[in-house]
UniProtKB/TrEMBL annotation:
Domain Glycosyltransferase 2-like: 6-167
UniProt name for this protein: Glycosyltransferase
Family matches, as SUPFAM superfamilies: Nucleotide-diphospho-sugar transferases
Signal peptide as annotated in the record: none
Matches recorded under CDD domains: DPM_DPG-synthase_like
Transmembrane feature ranges: none
One Pfam assignment: Glycos_transf_2
C-alpha cells in the first residue's frame, strides 16, 4: 500500500521527548502505512543518538542540520522531503494525539481543504502576559482571516503537500 501521509517533526534538543515518543510515532506510521520525517535541527544534546537508534525503520527519514536553523528552517527541510499527497506537522513533545492527525487528514479530504490547524485543549499560560498576548493575536487573526483559528501556535497542522511546497 502506498503512503498517503507523511508526518514532519522538527526536533531541537528533544532527546527526552523523542526517547518516549519516537517508538509510538513509528508504530503508528507502520500501522497506517504513513511516513515519518524527523529533522534534527542542530541539537546539542543526544537527539542525534536517539534518532540513529531507529535509522533502519522503513517509515522513518531523518535529516540533520549541522547548525540550528530555527523552527521554520526545520519545517522547510522536512516539507521539501515529503513525497506523499498529504503532510502533517507536529511537535516532538507528544502534546498532540496521533489519532487527531488521522482525524484532521480525513476532514481535509472530505472538505477538499488545503490546510487544517489543530487546536490544543486545556492550554494554560504560565504567565498572565502570555495569555494576554495570545488573546490579542487571536483577535487580530479573527479580523484578518475569515475562518476561526483558535490556536495559531499549534504545531499540529495538516496540508496538501503540493500547496505547502508552493508556499515555503
Amino acid at each position: 500500500m502506498e503512503s498517503q501521509v507523511t508526518i514532519v517533526i522538527p526536533a531541537y534538543n528533544e532527546e527526552a521527548a523523542l526517547t518516549s515518543e519516537l517508538p509510538k510515532l513509528i508504530a503508528f506510521c507502520h500501522q497506517h502505512h504513513w511516513q515519518l520525517v524527523v529533522v534534527n535541527d542542530g541539537s546539542t544534546d543526544n537527539t542525534r543518538h536517539v534518532l540513529e537508534q531507529y535509522e533502519d525503520e522503513s517509515c522513518l527519514t531523518v535529516a540533520h542540520h549541522k547548525v540550528n536553523r530555527g523552527y521554520g528552517g526545520a519545517l522547510k527541510t522536512g516539507i521539501l522531503s515529503v513525497t506523499t499527497p498529504y503532510l502533517a506537522t507536529m511537535d516532538a513533545d507528544g502534546q498532540h494525539r496521533l489519532e487527531d492527525v488521522q482525524t484532521l487528514c480525513s476532514v481535509l479530504q472530505q472538505h477538499d481543504a488545503d490546510m487544517i490547524v489543530g487546536t490544543r485543549q486545556n492550554q494554560r499560560s504560565a504567565n498572565w502576559y502570555r495569555g494576554l498576548g495570545k488573546t490579542i493575536i487571536r483577535t487580530v487573526a479573527r479580523i484578518l482571516v475569515p475562518n476561526t483559528i483558535t490556536d495559531l501556535n499549534s504545531g499540529m497542522k495538516v496540508y496538501r503537500t503540493e500547496l505547502a511546497k508552493q508556499y515555503i
